[in-house]
Each structure stands twice: as C-alpha cells, then as structure tokens.
Amino acid sequence: MAAAAPELVAIAEAFALPGPVTAIAPLGNGNVNATYRVDTASGESFVLQRLNTAVFAEPELVMANLQSLSTHAQQRPLAGQRWEVPRVIQHRHSGQPWLKAGGEFWRLTSFVNDAVTLDAIATPAQAMQVGRGLGLFHNLISDLPTDRLADTLPGFHITPTYLAAYDQILQSSQLQRCERTGWCTAFIAARRGLATVLETAKAEGRLLLRPIHGDPKVNNVMLCARTGVAVSLVDLDTVKPGLVHYDIGDCLRSACNPAGEEAPPGAPIHFDLELCQAVLEGYLGAARACLSEVDIDHIFAAARLISFELGLRFFSDHLAGDIYFRSQRPGHNLERALVQFKLTESIEAQEQAIRTIVEGLR
Ligand code: GN1
Ligand code: MG
Questions:
Q1: What DSSP designation does 264 have?
Q2: 307: which of 20, 273, 292, 344 fits an S-S bond (Cβ 3.0–4.6 Å)?
C-alpha cells in the first residue's frame, strides 16, 4: 500500500467500490482541491477528492452539475472514438454522491485508464490534441441546457469582479512592496480597460451564456497513453454556465506557454504561435459548428484576457497572503502572476499574427 493513511482508506471505502482499497496516492497538482488516486483489488482505479469548501461553498451543487453532465454524456456517445466523462460513485449507505465527515466534503469518481496528462506542451501534435479535447467537450455539452447547471462559483472568470477585488486588497494589504509588486501594479493599471471586453459582449447579447468546463488547462486534458489522442477532460467542478471564451482563453494561455505556469523566476516566457495554430486547428475542427462568427471574432481577446485575469488572480492572492491558491513557498503566487503577465505581454506583441491564425481557420 502506497503510504495510504488509514483515515483515507476508510473514506474511500465508504463509497461503493468494487473491492477493497490496495493503494492511495496523491494525484496531480491542483491548486484548489486535494486529489488522490485510489486503486482497488478489483483492478479498477478511482479518483478521491476533498473539495475545498472555502472555494466551493455549495459542494452539493457541484455534484448535481456533475450528475447532469454525466447523464447528458451518456445520451450523447461520441461515435467511433474513445471519449470518457468521469462517473460519480455513490456513498455505499446513503446513496448520495458524497461523504461529509468532520466538516469535510469528499467525493469519488471513476479514473480514466491508460491516459496521461502534461503540465506543459512540447509539440504541436500535443497542442492539437489539447484543443481537440476542448472542442469535443464543448460540442458534447453544447446542447446541455444551462438551466440544468447551477452557478457553483459566482464571479468565476468575471474579470471586472476580480479587478474590483484587487483594488480592495491593494488598499488593505500589509504586504511589503518590492520592485516586482510595483511592476505588477503598473502592469494592471495599464490594462484596466481590457477587463470588460467579454462581459460587455455578453451583456449586449453578442456572446451567449453556455455550459463551459471552466478550467481546461493542459493538465486537465487526458491523452491516450498509447496514441496521444485526447480521451477526456477531467476536473469538472467548474462546469457551469459561462462563456466558451473563458475556456478558449484558458486553454490557449495554458497550452501555448511552453515554459508552463510554474516556470521558475526569470525563465523566458513566450506565447508560441505554432502551438496556438495547432490548438485552434484541433479546437475548431471539433467545435466550429457550435460557434458563431462573433464567437470567432473574440478569440484573440479571450486569450489576452484570461492570461491577464489569471495573473491578476495570482497577484491578488499574493497580496492577500496566499489564501486561495495552494502555494509551496512565500512569493509563489507572485512568481505565478509574473508568468501570466509576461505571457500577456507576449500575446499583445503578437496580436496581428494571432488574429491571422484565427482568420485562416474561420
Ligand atoms: C485553479 O485547482 P486547479 O489547479 O484545478 C483554478 C483555476 C486556475 C488554475 C491555475 C476553481 O485550478 O481557475 O486557472 O488553478 N480553479 C479555481 O492553475 O479557482
Ligand atoms: Mg480546477
């Protein structure tokens, strides 16, 4: 057994598993929830998670969304290709899709076998698959009515709201300022006007509310271990009504940054055009039919905005004392913010080239 605390085994075995637990080990490197892989004597594996209820205040709604998604996916199998939506496993006695214990909220889902994730993209072929995975997912959920999905995280990806929160935190933060924090505040001040681009288009009815994944960064796309093709999108807590642009922007900012979002301080950060071309080819190849011309018009804005927004979120958390994103060391969220701001600069510097790529695929 791989260092499985007895309490974790008891929590996993409270769910309707097909056999006793043989191993439990931390899985992935999420910034919000705690995630473990659970192996069982039956040979089947599962994903056990403790939801961060400081972030997801109503975890029951998260589970209801997951159920709606999985019911929808069962009615919409993708013909001729492998595509999996993780299944929710019920508690063996209550029949609920969760275990509440000691103020904690736990849930168990199926594990996607024979698949891998990447923390940063190395080749256009990988980028194409990450884009294709998001496109298949958008296609799959495009006819899931948004009224079947609760808003589990109000304000998520609403950039003007993050900006207002940042303004408050900046005023009240006791944190010692330094050259790097000064650079960040100036960077944000120069881009305040950007913040409303997607929300204004939504308010004016030019962009429509639709079901989204909410967090399609590269390591949430599972690729077949043998062929490298995308077979699943995982981390479904943020599936809720939103703009597909939040997802497109998040996927681009994550997949086209070869240094990765955990790049060490001072590492050169650039937005890679070849990877961008591949992500969008993969994405539009699978999702073009779900998008309007106006949707396509906003792809560049989405890439720039979501990179900027994530930088703003990391920086705000740094100023607030690292209370939202798990961090490994003091200054970690500042380092992460700088990576996203450098990426935003690179996107801005290549605006024409990115727009040309989008036009070529329209
Ligand atoms: C958080 O926990 P994780 O790593 O799946 C965050 C995303 C960010 C991401 C950056 C609910 O996701 O929005 O893009 O960190 N999720 C939430 O790595 O805030
Ligand atoms: Mg996530």
A1: P
A2: 344
